[in-house]
Design brief:
The complex is a heterodimer of chains A (226) and B (306). With 226 residues, chain A is of the alpha/beta class. Chain A is built from eight helices and nine strands. The chains are: A alpha/beta (226), B alpha/beta (306). At the A-B interface, helix 8 of A face helix 5 and helix 6 of B. The complex binds iron/sulfur cluster (SF4) (2 copies).
């Protein structure tokens, strides 16, 4: 899922300064699960903004509510009229939610309330780790399920660099060396010979380096006129 | 003989080869680098010029290499994949060849986090293995990575790579050497050797597979100037192993500098005795002026004429 973190309050305060009628809009999906932008966080943040406005003697109406998904037009449509009643919407969705709102309803002023961090998962209560960079050409079959693009600090494809020591990455003793993990996993599965093959340069054009990506699936498109 | 550089000729002749490292300055004034090179002229076959070592911005390796060539000296151009994508790397290689450079050493490069621009975007478009292969294909097949042909065959280059017997997983380090040979490396310079036992074990595995016959292996050495420097490397540089005995030996010595030198010279003498070690690479960064003394005291002077 997408992991995000709330922006520092000082920045939120500054972004919202020109507005009176403010909606803190939560999103019911990834950011709810990673406890950054669900209903609970939206209400807490709205309360914080109200207190700040009161202290600073700046008038404001601040409301909070949540929709199931900010990244789909249909869910936005369900609350469209209500959204139009605000001067500003502080979206607690990931960056995709913010952009979906703006693209679908250009009249809205939408600010990001979160910093969208990465795609990953929780490994323990309160600990989330990054696991995929969306490179567009997955190589997990070559590494038995451990992503070198994301987890190796140099995105190497041909084994551990000379900085790998005692299982840790040269970048930080807090980080596992991805290639050490891959090496041990391949060894345990009797597939170490995979690491002897020279993997060719990756085609990064399938990742963001090729510009923003679009997927079109004719088989599920509605406007085929058939 | 592939490229016929002086370094390759000495290695091919079976004589123990010597290279030294020169670190370019954090300025556009390379007077001192040239001065060091001049002082070492008769003591080494070739000079490695680092490529923004430890991710610190310095004069470019190829620019310094060009200066050395003007002086009639031979550079080994280091190329890391940290700062340049495949377009820039291939272009710079062509430029280096055009300026008469023959030896190239391919590395991953220290992560940008360690340098003076920690906010830099690390490129890592290709990895060091892919760089070795790319240079070999440019040289031998006349092809760029993307498959297009060079307009004119490339002047031959002598391709080198690094090996670190002190990194982990240890068992993999010989596999990795073999992979680099298969990718196209003709010579290897290793990480600084302080743990000779581990190095010997690695060389034993190298010989078991006959890899020392397929590639020239040059052992890397660094003279330690002080106890502090040894401790710093031990605790902060990942991929370098400094045995406790070495620290104790330095602790017990009155003249730390002299002791550090002795350790370095003894290491070279031991390396000469190990079957399959073809030479030594001396990395005396910020202490370049000591290299002639090391070479002489290690019994490697005068250098052979080739
Ligand atoms: S290889 Fe690419 S797609 Fe697969 S997990 Fe890694 S970044 Fe994601
Ligand atoms: S130490 Fe391991 S994870 Fe870190 S950059 Fe090197 S290979 Fe990648």
């Amino acid at each position: 899922m997408i992991i995000a973190e709330r922006k520092p309050f000082a920045q939120i305060k500054e972004m919202l300064a020109p507005y009176q009628r403010i909606c803190v809009l939560g999103c019911g999906t990834c950011v709810t699960v990673c406890m950054a932008g669900g209903q609970k966080e939206a209400e807490e943040l709205a309360a914080l903004i109200r207190i700040q406005r009161k202290q600073d003697r700046q008038e404001a109406t601040v409301e909070a509510f949540t929709i199931e998904r900010q990244c789909e037009f249909e869910f936005i449509d369900q609350v469209l009229e209500r959204l139009k009643g605000y001067d500003a919407i502080l979206s607690l969705a990931c960056g995709i939610g913010v952009q979906t709102l703006v693209e679908h309803v250009p009249a809205l002023r939408v600010m990001p309330g979160l910093n969208t961090k990465f795609m990953g998962y929780p490994v323990a209560q309160g600990v989330w780790v990054e696991r995929c960079l969306g490179c567009g050409d997955c190589v997990l079959h070559l590494t038995e399920g451990i992503c070198p693009i994301t987890r190796c600090a140099k995105s190497l494809l041909n084994g551990p660099c000379g900085g790998s020591a005692e299982g840790k990455c040269e970048v930080s003793k807090e980080l596992d060396c991805a290639w050490h993990l891959i090496h041990d996993r391949l060894a345990s599965l009797g597939r170490l010979s995979l690491m002897a093959e020279i993997q060719p340069p990756k085609d990064w054009s399938s990742s963001h380096h090729g510009g923003p990506r679009t997927i079109v699936r004719e088989d599920v498109k509605l406007d085929r006129g058939e | 003989m592939i490229a016929g550089s002086r370094l390759e000729k000495v290695l091919a002749s079976g004589q123990f080869a010597v290279t030294a490292e020169l670190g370019p300055p954090k300025s556009g004034d390379i007077t001192q680098l040239k001065h060091h090179a001049e002082a070492l002229r008769n003591h080494v076959e070739a000079f490695n010029i680092t490529d923004n070592q430890t991710a610190i911005v310095r004069t470019s390796s190829i620019a310094c290499g060009a200066a050395l060539i003007q002086m009639g000296l031979e550079p080994v151009i280091q190329m890391t994949v940290r700062d340049r994508n495949r377009i820039a790397l291939q272009s710079d290689l062509l430029g280096a060849v055009a300026l008469g450079m023959k030896n190239v050493l391919c590395l991953s490069g220290d992560h940008q986090k360690f340098g003076n621009e920690p906010g830099a975007k690390g490129v890592f478009d290709i990895d060091s293995m892919q760089l070795i292969k790319a240079l070999k294909d440019m040289r031998d097949e006349g092809k760029f990575i993307g498959g297009e042909s060079l307009e004119h065959p490339l002047e031959k280059i002598f391709i080198g790579a690094v090996a670190n017997p002190f990194a982990d997983p240890f068992e993999y380090r010989v596999d990795r050497l073999e992979k680099k040979i298969n990718a196209g490396a003709s010579f290897i310079q290793t990480q600084c050797i302080f743990d000779l036992e581990r190095f010997k074990k690695w060389m034993e595995m190298v010989r078991e597979r006959g890899l020392h016959k397929k590639v020239y292996i040059m052992g890397g050495v660094t003279p330690i100037k002080s106890l502090g420097a040894a401790r710093y490397m031990k605790n902060n540089v990942s991929g370098i192993i400094i045995p406790d005995e070495l620290i104790t030996r330095l602790q017990g010595a009155k003249d730390k500098k002299e002791e550090g030198l002795k350790i370095c010279i003894e290491t070279i003498q031991q390396l000469k005795e190990i079957e399959g070690v073809a030479g030594v690479h001396i990395m005396a960064i910020a202490w370049e002026e000591i290299v002639p003394e090391i070479v002489e005291r290690a019994g490697l002077y005068p250098r052979p004429a080739v």
